Structures are given as C-alpha cells and as structure tokens.
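During the first year of the project, the team set up a workflow for recording each protein of interest as an amino acid sequence followed immediately by a discrete structure-token representation. This format lets reviewers and collaborators read both layers of information side by side without switching files. As required by the reporting guidelines, we include two representative entries from the current panel. The first entry is reproduced here exactly as it appears in our internal archive.
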Amino acid sequence: MSVRLATFLILALTYCAPSIEPRDAAERETIRSLTAQLNWASIRYSHFGRVEFTTESSGVAATRLVAIGRPATRDLTRLLQDPDRGVVAHIVLCRIWDSGLSGGSSESPIYLGDEIIGFSYEYRGLSWKCITSGACSADPEALSNNAHKWIARMGA
C-alpha cells in the first residue's frame, strides 16, 4: 500500500467515521434523560428466541438510544456495571455498534426439581437470570468484565 493511499485512509476514517460525541447540548441532555430510564423492564425475551425492547417507556427509551446511535456510547458505557441497567446498556450498545449482526442470544430454563423457576439468558457474551417472580440479575463480575471489554473496544 502506498503512503499516499494509507494517509488517505487514515484521514477518511478519522473525519468520516460517525462520532461518539453528542452533536450538541440538546442531544447530550436527551441521551442522559433516556439512559436514566433504562432498567430491567426495558427488555424481554421473545418466543422467537430474540432479546427485544419492550413497549414500556424504558423500552422506548432503549429504542430511541439505538436510533441516536454512537453519540450515546459514552453514557451507555458508564452504565455497564450498574446492576439494574448494565444488561440493557450492553444490548443497546450491541444494537448500535454491531447493527449488521443478527442472533447472538440464548435462553435456557432454570429448574428447581421438576419445576421451571426462571430462565438464564445470554446476549452476545453477557449472561443474566430472571426468575418467575420477575426479579432479574447479572453477576457483578460478569458486568465488570463486560464493561472492560466495551471500554477496550471503544478505546475509552
């Protein structure tokens, strides 16, 4: 590869790649407001084997963050270790940064004897559990490891 072509590619990638910074103060405030709404109620596992955003306000907030795209990255990465919002932040980041990928999720039942008491889920490397009472949780170490992977990926 010639020096001229290499220089062109570096400049093109530097100046044409979508920014991870909000465009203005209004967008920054919108992102902060939307990320504050994220919680376990933002997601559900469909009967078709996919993690989806719900139609509740927190799910709508997640959908809007995906639409905003990469400018929401910094605020979302700050949530990755949050026990109530880390899984949703991971899913939103995956939808933003890996939008061309499909699948990547799994579901398996959790048994107590012969009774199903909940489900274990996995989405592109992050696992969590939800029991039939509705309580969901992810292992704090798994959230921390996932956060480090995203931060390394973003170079933040």
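The second entry, processed by the same pipeline in the following quarter, appears below.
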Amino acid sequence: MHDMIEKFYREHRDSYVYRISRKAGGLENAEDIVQEAFCRLLKYQTFFEDKGEEALHPYFSRVLNRALQDFRTEDTRQGMALAEYGMDEEASNELMGYQKRILEEIKEDITSRKQEHKNILYMFFYLGYPPRDIVKALDVNYHMAKNVINRFKHEMREKYGNPEAAEIG
C-alpha cells in the first residue's frame, strides 16, 4: 500500500499543486498543502487499503480539499488582529485554550467508539466525506452511517449546548 501511495504521489503531485495553487495563494502554499494531504493519506491509509488504486483519486481529493480548508482557516485566524475579535491577548489565549480542550474532548469521544462508528465519524468530521461516500468506502449501511453521525452531533449539542460544537475543524 505504501508503495502504491508513493507512486501516486510521484505521478500526480504536480497536477494537484497546480490545481489548488490559485486557491492556496501561490505555488509555495499549494506545495505545502499537497504535502500535508499526502502525509494525511499515509497516516490514514487503513481506511482505503483494501479498495485498491482506483480509490486513491477520490479519497485524496477529499483529503486535499480538507487540507486546503484547514490551511485557509488557519491563515485567516493568524492574519486577523486580536482587536478585530474585540479582546486582548490574554482573553484570546483563554478562548483558544477552551476551544482546544473541547476539540480534544470531542476527539477522545470519537476514539472511544467502536471501530465501525469511529471510522464513520472520522471520515465525516475530519475528512469531510458526505455519508454516501462513507457508505461506499466502508461498505456500511447508509441509514446506519447517518444515524451514527446524527446521534454524535446530538450528543455534542447536548454536552456543549452549542450546535457549532458538533463541527470539528
């Protein structure tokens, strides 16, 4: 599997870099994002290793889009002055610490689930897959996948009292 990903990287890296360079703000950023996406692909290859090479393109496109989205979100956050948030540095650090703790708790909650549910939640929240693609990739029942996702969202809303808490960045 690792060799197949390396081959895929060598053959398609430049086309993916070119494809996202405008959205990323230049070739240098695009190269970083594509590299990050391939690192994620290697880290989570167990989600598609039994699917073969034909599964790499759609899976990698999702991972790449998520990496680009993460880059843009982080870039926006770093580019904003604290004054735009209407808070001083100490308050900003406190808020960021609180958000980080919540995200860690949510990650722990996902990892504590049984493997099938963990895979569904990971693909939905972290990789941005819609349920119809999760069903194809994991070979699970559509209604079961939707129920797992909706139940988890509901639990997070109950726990944190905020619909946005169910969205994992």
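For the second entry, the following points were noted during internal review. Helices lie at 2-24, 27-43, 56-79, 82-85, 89-111, 115-126, 131-138, 142-160. Residues 1-79 form one domain. Both points are flagged for discussion at the upcoming steering committee meeting.
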